[in-house]
């Protein structure tokens, strides 16, 4: 049975760091980096020779490769400094990128290309290649970074056939840091309470909100959606990855059965694709980033007649969800 939020971290497969340096029996159709087999050098701000970058933040960069061989160093250079918050380890960061293979001079697929999208991941978590994972830590939102990634910081000794990166190639990335969401982020603002016959919500700052079930009220038989705080961000679309804080309680007794605060803070999940319970897919698509939403989910849109961990069969579920980012 699917979990409510499912810990559905949607990572860019082509940039995933391998969990092991051992040989793989899998097909090249599911590429991953294997930088873990090599020692990643400490980043430096510059080395000779250096690529040059032109173009504005928020648009595809033009990368010019210099003559000569790369230095072999892991370079993280700030092309332009943003004025937003600095990215900390384990923050959820949204990055647009342009890339080029130093050795062949060929462009690599970019988030700015047609059909591309920004990458959302946890900085410093070790899940992506170091060129992404490590480069953004300590850098400000709004910054453009030039990253020269030797094999240890990119795709390892074997390269990445899907991207056209040969074994041992150095890759040049330009990263635009678009957004940053710390794990303790919440939605602030005055709450517009639902009617008295519906659950009431008390804000607790950086802690999980308190949800109080109305005494003597029968649960609704259809999905109810209440916008407690209306955000002014972009509208959530089906298929997007969201970063959310959430708390869920049972209508029957008000007992909390799940909360992102119990799992380290803000979580990433994909909405509108059937990976979540139907109540989440139906209730979150169309909402706006920056909103705090309460969903009252009947059993037919939750777990139905099957028990799920701390959720009994035929339970009506009440969630308060902070929508922090959508990519």
From TrEMBL:
Entry-linked InterPro entries: PPIase_dom_sf, PPIase_FKBP_dom
Catalyzed reaction equations: [protein]-peptidylproline (omega=180) = [protein]-peptidylproline (omega=0)
Keywords assigned: Isomerase, Rotamase, Signal
Keyword DNA repair attached: no
Signal sequence residues: 1-29
One term of GO molecular function: peptidyl-prolyl cis-trans isomerase activity
Pfam families on file: FKBP_C
This enzyme's EC code(s): 5.2.1.8
Domain PPIase FKBP-type: 90-181, 239-327
Database matches in PROSITE patterns: FKBP_PPIASE, PROKAR_LIPOPROTEIN
Annotated PANTHER family: 39 KDA FK506-BINDING NUCLEAR PROTEIN (PTHR43811:SF19), FKBP-TYPE PEPTIDYL-PROLYL CIS-TRANS ISOMERASE FKPA (PTHR43811)
Family: Belongs to the FKBP-type PPIase family.
Listed name of the protein: peptidylprolyl isomerase
Organism whose genome encodes this protein: Kitasatospora atroaurantiaca
């Amino acid at each position: 049975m699917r979990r409510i939020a499912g810990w559905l971290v949607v990572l860019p497969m082509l940039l995933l760091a391998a969990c092991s340096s051992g040989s793989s029996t899998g097909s090249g159709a599911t590429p991953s980096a294997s930088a873990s087999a090599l020692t990643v050098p400490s980043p430096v701000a510059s080395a000779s020779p250096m690529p040059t970058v032109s173009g504005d933040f928020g648009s595809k960069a033009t990368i010019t490769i210099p003559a000569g061989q790369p230095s072999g160093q892991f370079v993280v250079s700030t092309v332009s400094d943003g004025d937003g918050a600095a990215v900390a380890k384990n923050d959820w960061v949204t990055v647009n990128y342009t890339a080029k293979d130093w050795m062949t001079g060929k462009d690599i697929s970019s988030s700015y290309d047609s059909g591309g999208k920004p990458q959302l991941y946890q900085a410093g978590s070790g899940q992506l290649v170091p060129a992404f994972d490590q480069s953004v830590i300590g850098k400000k939102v709004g910054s453009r970074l030039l990253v020269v990634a030797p094999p240890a910081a990119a795709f390892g000794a074997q390269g990445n056939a899907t991207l056209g990166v040969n074994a041992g190639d150095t890759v040049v990335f330009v990263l635009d840091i678009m957004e940053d969401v710390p794990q303790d982020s919440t939605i602030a603002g005055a709450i517009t309470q639902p009617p008295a016959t519906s659950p009431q919500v008390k804000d607790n700052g950086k802690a999980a909100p308190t949800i109080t079930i109305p005494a003597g009220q029968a649960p609704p038989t259809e999905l109810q959606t209440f916008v407690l705080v209306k955000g002014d961000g972009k509208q959530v679309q089906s298929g997007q990855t969201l970063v959310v804080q959430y708390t869920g309680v049972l209508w029957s007794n008000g007992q909390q059965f799940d909360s992102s605060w119990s799992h380290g803070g803000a979580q990433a999940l994909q909405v509108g694709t059937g990976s979540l319970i139907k109540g989440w897919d139906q209730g979150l698509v169309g909402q706006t980033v920056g909103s705090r939403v309460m969903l009252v989910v009947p059993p037919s849109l939750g777990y139905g007649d099957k028990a799920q961990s701390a959720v009994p069969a035929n339970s009506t579920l009440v969630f308060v969800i902070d929508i922090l980012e959508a990519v």
